[in-house]
Amino acid sequence: MTPDLMEAGAKRRAEHRERAERGSSGDRGAAWGRPVGREPDFAHGVALYLDDVTVSFDGFKALNRLSLSIDVGELRCIIGPNGAGKTTMMDCITGKTRPDAGRISFGSTIDLLRLNEPAIAQIGIGRKFQKPTVYERLTVFENLELSLAADRRVRAALRARLSGAERDRIAEVMALIHLQDEAACSAGLLSHGQKQWLEIGMLLMQDPKLLLLDEPVAGMTDEETERTAELFLSLAGRHSLVVVEHDMHFVEQLTQGRRKVTVLHEGSVLAEGLLSQVQADERVVEVYLGR
Ligand SMILES: Nc1ncnc2c1ncn2[C@@H]1O[C@H](COP(=O)(O)OP(=O)(O)OP(=O)(O)O)[C@@H](O)[C@H]1O
Ligand SMILES: [Mg+2]
C-alpha cells in the first residue's frame, strides 16, 4: 500500500472514531436508529413529566411554560379550546417538535429532549394520530403481525414464522379491540371506527408504557365511541394514557367522576381537577364560551 493510501485510510478511521464518539454524547441526533440502552425508571410513580415547556412558532407561543405530570397507569384526559396547544404538546413528547425551553422526562430518568422520534417510540411511547394509517390491503391479523416487528422489512416480517407467544398476543389484542371476528378481513373493508381500533391495536402490539391519543373518537358513531371508552378503561393501569378530546360525553365516560382532567388554554394549564370541578370553573367557562 502506498503511503498516500495509508494516510487516507488512517484519516478515514480517525473521522469514523470521531463520529462514533460524537454519537455517544447523547444529543438528539446521536440516538437515531440506535436502541436506547437505558430502561425508563417508573419507581417514583411518574410516567411523564413536563416542566416549564415553551414552544414558539414565529414568536407565537403555542406552549407557554407548560407543566404537567402523568402518573404510571393513569388515564388523563386533556381538554381545551382549539389552538390551546394540545397537539403541540404531543408533538413535543414524541420528538416531532423541539421545545425552546423546558424539560420533558419519561419516568424519572429518561430525558425525552435528548432523543429523536424513532428512539422515543422505541422506549415505549406510542402515539395515535387522528387519521388511521392501517395497511388497507392486508388483513387485520397481518396488520397486527407487522407491528410485532415494526423495524423489520415488511416482507421479511410477513414471511417470518410466528411463535406461539406472538400468536397469543395477536389474539389477545384482537379481542381487546373487538376485531377477533374480522381477523381475516382486509383492513380496507373495516368501518372508520374499526380502523381506529386496529391502529390502536397496532400500537398495543409494541406494548407501549405510555399511549398518546389525539381526538381518538372523532368521526366515530356513538356506539363506537362507547366501545372506545371501554377499551381505554381496560388499558389504564397496564399502560399510562393521555387522551386529548373535545367530545365531553366521551371524557365523562373515561373519567367516571373520579379521574382528573387537565384544561389547556393558550399553551398552559388553566385548570386541573375532576370534570365537574373544571366545568364549574368560571375561567374555563369563559375560554369555552369566548371562542
Ligand atoms: N407548525 C406550526 N407552525 C405555526 N403555528 C403552529 C404550528 N403548529 C401549531 N401552531 C399553532 O399553535 C397553536 C396551538 O396549536 P395546536 O394544534 O397545538 O392546538 P390544539 O389544542 O391541538 O387545537 P385543536 O383542538 O384545534 O386540535 C395554534 O394557534 C396553531 O395555529
Ligand atoms: Mg389538535
Q: Taking all residues together, what is the mean pLDDT?
A: 86
Counted beta strands: 10
Shape: globular
Low-confidence stretches: 16-36
CATH topology of the largest domain: Rossmann fold
Based on helices, strands and strand pairing, what is the structural class?
Answer: alpha/beta
Going by CATH, the homologous superfamily of the largest domain would be P-loop containing nucleotide triphosphate hydrolases
Spatial ordering of strands, largest sheet: 6-7-8-3-9-10
CATH class of the largest domain: Alpha Beta
CATH architectural group of the largest domain: 3-Layer(aba) Sandwich
| Whole-number count of domains | 2
The helix fraction, in percent, is 25-40%
List all distinct small molecules, including ions and cofactors, that are bound in this structure. adenosine-5'-triphosphate, magnesium ion
Estimate the strand proportion. 15-25%
Per DSSP, the total helix count is: 11
